[in-house]
Every structure is written in C-alpha cells, then in structure tokens.
C-alpha cells in the first residue's frame, strides 16, 4: 500500500521555519576543484568560494576536490575529495542547532571554539559528541566509519554504546555494530583510501553482512524519527484545536477576547510546533542520507560488479536485504519528505 | 516540374526542398534522445568508450535500475566496474524509443523517489530507449545532449 504523504503539511511547516533555514550556517572559504552544492530545494549547482552553505544543504566533492567551510562561530570544517557532507537543523531544547554529517568520504572538524551546546555530528552509523577538538570522520563504502582524533577528545556513540576517543587515537564503527576499541594512530599515518579499500573488499566479500548492518542503522534512525513524530504530533493537534478555539471565542466573545487567547495560547504553540518539527525533518533527512549514500553506493558497487551475472547468489542475497530497507524507508520515512529531498 | 518561388532561380525541385526542410526542422525539434540515428551513434560510442568518457557522456543524478547515484565519482566507479565485468551493447538494436511522460516513473517504482526523479531531475525531451543486444535487453534512460549525442541518465536491466 502506498504510504500517506504529509507533503502539504510539511511545506506549510517548512515555510514557518524558513527564517532559520535561510540563516547562513557556513561559508565556503576555500574551494579546490569542482565541488557541488545540493541545496535544500534539491538543486545541484557548482560550489564557489564565498558561497553560503545552509541547513538542508549538502556539499558533494569529486576526485581532487576539497572544500573548507567556516562556521559563524569561527570553527572550520574541511570536506575532502569524494565525500558527501550535509548540514541539517534540529531543535535542542528550544534552540535551533545545526548538525553535521558525512555519509561518504572524509570530513575534518576543527572545533576550537565551543560555545553553547555541542553540535551533533554524525557519520552514516555513529554519532560523535565533541569535547573541543580537531578530528576527522571517515565514512566507508559499506557504511562503516572511522573517527580519528588529532587533539582533544570525542565521544562516539553507536547502537547505544559510547566510547571516548582521545588525542592520536581512532575508533572504527562497523555498520550496525557498537564502536570498537580505540587504537593508537601515528599522526599523519592514517590512509583513508587504504581503509576504505578494505571496507569495499569487506562489502564485496560479504554483501549481506554489510547490508544487514546498514539496515540495523536504518531501523535505529527510524526509531529516532518515530520518537520525534510522537513528540510533534500532539503539539500539532493542540495547535489545531487552539486555533479552532480562538475562532469560537471570536464568535462568542468578540475580537478582544480572541486576541488575548491567541497571544496566550496560540502564539506559543505556533512557535513551538515548527521547532519540534525540525527534529522530525532531521531524522527523516538523516535516513535519506543513509538510503542514498550508503545503500545507493552498495547497490551501485554490487550491481556493476555482478552486472553480467544477475543470478549470482551474493547479488540475489544482497537485493533481498536492500528491498527490506527500501520498504522500511518508503513506509516510515517518505511520508515526512517533500520531492526536493529526493 | 513545379518549383517553389524562393528557389526557382536554382531550379531545385520542390519535393527535394521540402524534404530537406522537413529533415532540418525535425533535427532541430526532435530531442537527440528520441532520434534513432543519435541513439545508434551513442550505442557505438558506448561500445568503444572507457569509463572516463562514459562519465562525461552521463547525466546526473544517474539512475541505475531504480537507484539514484549523485556523486560523479560513484558514476565513474559504476562504469569502471561494468566495463571490467564485460558489459557493453554488442550488436545493440533499438527496439523502442518511448518519450518520458508523467507516467514513465511507474515502471521504475511506485514511490515518491521515482516520481520526483522523473519530474524534477530529467531534462525535457528525455526518453527510455530499449536496446536488444546479443546477450540481453537493456533500457537506457537518455536526455539532454553533448555534441549532439544524448546523455545517458540511466540504465536498467538486464530485462
């Protein structure tokens, strides 16, 4: 059965939160090669020096491309070649925050200035808590990630388990698993392409294990999405009821009474509801990233490898897990998306 | 024999002039993706090209079956792997050219993803071209053009 889309409602709420979407979250202060910017509106354009990058946008780099972004607070982020890096706004206790994620490639965060709350930083399968630091997140072709700390500390969480990683240490998070044991890394000795080559080999050697891991991560993201929906829906209903009540008051007691009710009850709900909705969008778009850049990449690698052997057992087995993931995505996530997200 | 006034001085038969006129107008208005000659040219190109050349001849986002591939490096790796696996269109015969319309996405999937891809990501005048090779049948999703040859926006198959 085709799932019910919330398209019109989503657009209406997005319009309400438009001022936060239009805020300049980062600026491209260094551009090498021909990177691209996929805007929140779904358009793919070349990214140039000085271009603003906002919540909902993704920076996509190809071979030889490098982009350095400067955040409003002075911190910087370097997006290495062959990477996909996204910014997405979310609500954190009434404040709009911008989260960062790279579902592909390598991104280095130089967070020397930490004011207010910690930003949420994600790879395809894990979340990092920042403790004032410089670190790189590598996202592999099979959905695994590697967090490498150059200075300071980070806390990496996946599958409900947290691991602290300190300076000159790294931790690998295999897709669908908890973080492994941190291991020491000689500064400058970490080779992303070598590590990713190993992850690609692992994917081709056992595609079902990789796909099942990514599927577990998708289930985890859908759980987060459902929690956000459960927090948003009552507020949305409350707002609809309050608006109806304001109309009743206007008809029964006149304009002044209705205005008073609107100021006291409706307006606060109008401010709170879109903020709560930001989190629904955050988790929905995090799942889009996983679906597009992890499942899409795995599919593309395996399909192109087995294109002349459509009945190869590894390919058949992979497709079965892939279909399950797509069904979950279609059923649980797509209703919270608009066409531009896809 | 009747001559049309404009070219009377040249004594060119009206039928020849009309044929040339119709051919020129057709080439100018029919998108390359829907022109059999252009698609045949593309098939010959595909059979001889390396991954880098195929990447340049590809539109993005690319559609592999029903999977959207956005980064250029992913499209390059896909072509590289397919060539390494022996994929090509040997003896490719065009058995159908279907211009993309508002219903085409349904044959690729029923969800919002394909609906959005076909309505927002493809250039005007795109077409699904069914090609029969000696080994299998493939659907090429073609649109736009580069040096007169349609860009490959997608591959689906073997069917």
Highlighted features:
heterodimer; A: 342 residues; alpha+beta; Jelly Rolls; 2 domains; 17-stranded mixed sheet; 6 helices; 43% helix; globular; B: 159 residues; Nuclear Transport Factor 2, Chain: A; six-stranded mixed sheet; 36% helix
Notes on the protein architecture:
The complex is a heterodimer of chains A (342) and B (159). Chain A is built from six helices and 17 strands. Chain A has 342 residues and is an alpha+beta fold. In chain A, strand 8 and strand 9 form a beta hairpin. The radius of gyration of chain A is 22 Å and the shape is globular. Chain A starts with 6 loop residues before the first helix and ends in a 9-residue tail after the last helix. Chain B is an alpha+beta fold and 159 residues long. Chain B folds into two domains: 29 residues; 126 residues, Roll (Nuclear Transport Factor 2, Chain: A), CATH 3.10.450. Chain B is built from five helices and six strands, in the order H-H-H-E-E-H-E-H-E-E-E. In chain B, strands 2-1-6-5-4-3 form a six-stranded mixed sheet. The mean pLDDT of chain B is 87. Classes of the chains: A alpha+beta (342), B alpha+beta (159). Chains A and B meet through helix 5 of A and strand 1, strand 2, helix 4 and helix 5 of B.
